[in-house]
Amino acid sequence: VSQLDDNRLKMFSYLERVIDTTHHVVIVADSTNRSIERKLKAQFPWAITLRPEKGDFILPELADSLLVDSMPNKVILETQSFPLIANAISQFNAQNTSERQVQVFTTYRSNAYDNENLSRKVLGGIGFTYPVGFKPLEYTANAAFIESFESRFGKPPNKEAIRGYDLTLDLILRTAVVNRLDQSFDLGETQYLSNRFLYRPEANDSYLNIGLFLLQHEGYEIKEIKE
User: Fold this and answer.
1) Is pTM beyond 0.85 here?
2) Share of the chain above pLDDT 90, in %
3) Are strands 199-201 and 207-209 parallel, antiparallel or unpaired?
4) Confidence grade of residue 136 (pLDDT, cut at 50, 70, 90)
5) Are 93 and 122 in contact (CB under 8 A)?
6) Can you give 158-189 as a three-state secondary structure string?
7) SS3 sequence, the chain?
8) Which end of the chain is more exposed for a tag (fewer CB within 10 A), N or C?
9) What's the mean pLDDT in 118-139?
């Protein structure tokens, strides 16, 4: 089982809880994601499949015709192509009105979603929901850490710096509780500023971190979905 599979297993479990036959489900998957499209179709057999055009875009009239006003629209977007991500998000946000409710999910948020041209406002408009290993740092709750970091390094901490800090804390905690690190993984999941750590042994005697968050855009904010 890969890290990608872990993301999708977590999201499938969540989707199964929040989507039912009172929702209009639309699956959008490009040619590299046909296998996940089939799995989603098996889980939601009443879902409609929307195939993107070859140029990685969705026809506006097709998106309009496949969404409904009579029930909430739940769109599951499966692609790692930024042009398709940007186009699809824009199309579904335009369809999200007071008469038509549209929410977008993905089972895998690739690095393509980090593109600065993707508007947080638009993602918030469609309640974009996804699994990920890192959540944005909450300023209010972590003001002391941020100010200390800025004072020392002259700039706010980025994702890599925060992950390094969290990982260091995790290793210190585990070795403090159990002298041998490889025996500490039975402690279960831990969480720090922006990262979770839950280790699974792999075949090559290494360990894979499978700690994940479920996050949802709401307005300009990103909120954790508590399970």
Assistant:
1) yes
2) 85
3) antiparallel
4) very high
5) yes
6) CHHHHHHHHHHHHHHHHHHHCCCHHHHHHHCC
7) CCHHHHHHHHHHHHHHHHCCCCCEEEEEECHHHHHHHHHHHHHCCCCEEECCCCCCCCCHHHHHHHCCCCCCEEEEEECCCHHHHHHHHHHHHHHCCCCCCEEEECCCCCHHHHCCCCCHHHHHHCCCEEEECECCCCCCCCHHHHHHHHHHHCCCCCHHHHHHHHHHHHHHHHHHHCCCHHHHHHHCCEECCCEEECEEECCCCCEEECCCEEEEEECCEEEECCC
8) C
9) 95
**Among candidate residues 63, 69, 111, 114, the one with its CA nearest the CA of residue 87:** 63
Domains of the chain in start order, with CATH, are: 3-132+212-224 (3.40.50.2300), 143-209 (no CATH)
Distance CA(194)–CA(169), nearest Å, equals 12
HSE (side-chain half, CA atoms, 13 Å) at 14: 23
48 confidence band (pLDDT: 50, 70, 90): very high
What are all long-range contacts of 213-216, with beta carbons under 8 Å and residues at least 24 apart? 213/131, 213/132, 213/133, 213/134, 213/135, 214/10, 214/11, 214/14, 214/129, 214/130, 214/131, 215/129, 215/130, 215/131, 215/132, 215/135, 216/127, 216/128, 216/129
197: tokens are 């750590």
* Structure token pair of residue 77: 């977007």
Extract the tokens encoding 20. Answer: 């039912």
